[in-house]
Amino acid sequence: MFARRPSKNPHAEAEQFRRRALLGFIGVAAALLGLAGWYFKLQVIDHAEYATLSEANRIRPRPVVPGRGTIYDRNGKLLAENVPAFRLEVTPDKAGDPKRLIAELGKIVELAPEDIERFEATRKATRSFRPIALKLRVEEEEMARFAVNRWRFPGVELVPYLTRRYPYGDLFAHIVGYVGRIDEKDLETLGEGNAALTHIGKTGLERYYEEALRGSVGYERVETNVEGRALRVVDRVPAQAGTDLRLSVDADLQRAMVDAFGDLEGSAIAMDPRTGELLAMVSLPSYDPNLFVNGISSKDFRALNENPSRPQFNRVVLGGVAPGSTLKPLIALAGLDSGLRKPEDKVLSTGMFYLPGTSRGWGDAARGGHGWTDLRKSIAASVNTYYYRLALDLGIERFDDYMQRYGFGQPTGIDLMGEISGILPSPAAKLRAKSERWYPGDTVNASIGQGDWKVTPLQLVRATAGLADGKLRRPHLVTAKRLSFDGQWEPMPQPKPLPISPNPGNVALIRDGMMATMQPGGTGVATARGAPYTMAGKTGTAQVVSRRGTASVHPKSLPLHLRHRALFVGFAPAENPTIVLAIAVEGGGYGGSTAGPIARKIFDAYLLGVKPEKEDSGNGERGTGNETVPAPTTPPAVTVPPSGARIRSPSPAVAPEGEGLHAALAGSSRPASRAPPAANAHSLFPIPHPPVPQ
Q: Which is it for strands 78-90 and 132-135: parallel, antiparallel or unpaired?
């Protein structure tokens, strides 16, 4: 018999279905509730966070680099400008194999090893869809060749941008300076807000006024897709262009100053004594700042660094020289202000000066001496003995105090970076530098601007301007600024000037002595000969090496780097000065024969509009033709007459300007003959002698 199948229980099956359906419904409901809760969390609880992330993925800020402020001379000539340029940009994911690309592009556009190295480093650190600069400055001929072959290079574009240009090249390199590409150290200084900048001021005014010149970075909000590619610009915050600067310098006078030097090396400054504005300023030789803007080549950089004349060295603010006799008018003023000297007081110059109890002497320019010398003659004929005695009477402490009042041993405050303070000779300074005590002979050396002195041309021109105007002012280059191209020029405030002396009459006496320097009998007469205007000045010679063993050698017989520095300070027109000069010529020999003619050309260019003709200096051999080279048998006194002075026979020839060419004899082991008693005596008031001859 067949077994019977169990009969179905519809009620049990229905109950089972209901239970399963209920469990399924509960599961679905729980899932829906969980999903709803998750949506609630995303859209309500975490809304702010995810909205921000979403917006960041869709809208990205892109910095907008501002145009750098431009720089003008006093007459509106552009000294630093922004010019359109083109750079070659490569988008790696479109350009294909980079090695093949560079090889092919190199046949059309010249690519330096530095360009390729920078491109490879950037490519490895950047996403492939972002463009990378391969060459920063493409020349017109290269652009034309690339335009013809552009179809061969997908992903390579010529992109326009603004780059810095210095139209006058090396003429203003040491004033304006240059910008260069930002490095890691610069980025740390600038901060994240300026990370988009590519260039920063490195030297000169570009560095000193960097914050004002660079402006403020703006930005654009750019909509992108999920891959980060730009779709459109949503909105924009414009960049704020940099501040424009107007300088006090005159481009024409600057060119005239360079031409006046010829092939000589050195520095010169022209200043308006009424305002402190610098009219021109050169440091020679110079260099082309355009080389540094987009990265200097290894060849050019090596050429600059290996040049023994150091073109990049700014002699005006970084270079210091012994001032020589250019300091004498200021020392004479100290004598008047201190009450130790009166204009009519006379000192007897016999040719050699001796400290009591010593046999080592300090010489005057004339071997036989200058005779009785008052204040005016001491400046005009540059009589050393007058200043030897004056410095000893002042004492080194009071001497230094007056020199500090005149601005030495401290920066002038010019708006350029790195200005040095120079060295003011003092017992403390000598002890620090040489671990030696101070001797009276050191004071004698200091009295004629020799020894441990170190001053900058800026300090000299400021002090000389103080004599011309009666006030010490801050030398400055920038006179005005404007915030936009169509804005008004706003003057730059300057500190209040200080009187150089409490007695204007004393300053007038010094000016009279400086005017006598440029007249017959003065050391600068050749410089002023034939000028239709009056000038006042002081020539000077700064020794580079000790005269020991070379006392009878004409400086121009020495190698160029061992020759004296020729100096000149002066102003014109003497009655109402509008220009003050300070000139230092390296290896120039004597101030009267080398620096003086340069000053005359600069004065003529500024006051008469006469442009100097650039001459071949013959490596410092140029002179006025008045020099007399001493015979080898000449005794320690150097027998070279002052430039432009009348040579009187049978009187012995004299050394120019009396720059203390025997100062080093104080430390020499070679003894000199003892001076006659009259040479040691103070021939000052009262003098119980018959009337002294003038």
A: antiparallel
How many Cα neighbours within 13 Å face the side chain of 524?
36
Secondary structure element (H or E) that encloses residue 615, with its range: none
Q: Is residue 35 left, alpha or beta, with left meaning phi > 0 and alpha meaning psi from -120 to 50? A: alpha
DSSP strands (E only) in 91-174 = 132-135, 156-165
Contacts of 265 (CB under 8 A, 6+ apart): 284, 285, 309, 585, 586, 587
Look at residues 257, 240, 241, 242 and name the one whose alpha carbon lies nearest to residue 175: 257
Q: What single letter denotes the amino acid at residue 117?
A: E
Lowest mean pLDDT among 166-180, 392-406, 659-673: 659-673
- Of the two residues 243 and 656, the one the predictor is more confident about is 243
Residues 541 and 448: their CA atoms lie apart, in Å, by 10
Report pLDDT for 626.
32
Indicate if the pLDDT at residue 368 is higher than 60: yes
Tell me what the pLDDT averaged over the chain comes to.
81
In whole angstroms, give the CA distance from residue 476 to residue 277.
Answer: 5
Query: Cα(389)–Cα(443) distance, rounded to whole angstroms?
Result: 10
Kindly give the residue spans of alpha helices, DSSP state H, lying in 470-587: 504-517, 525-528
Please report the pLDDT score of residue 678 as a whole number: 38
Burial of 308 (C-beta count, 10 Å sphere; 0-12/13-18/19+):
exposed
Write out the two tokens for 664: 């080093």
> What's the confidence (pLDDT) of residue 340?
96
pTM of the model: 0.76
Distance spanning both ends of the chain, measured CA to CA: 170
Q: Which residues have a Cβ under 8 Å from the Cβ of 594 and sit 6 or more positions away?
A: 264, 566, 585, 588, 620, 622, 623
Average pLDDT over every residue of 157-165 = 85
Catalytic residues, by residue number, are 325
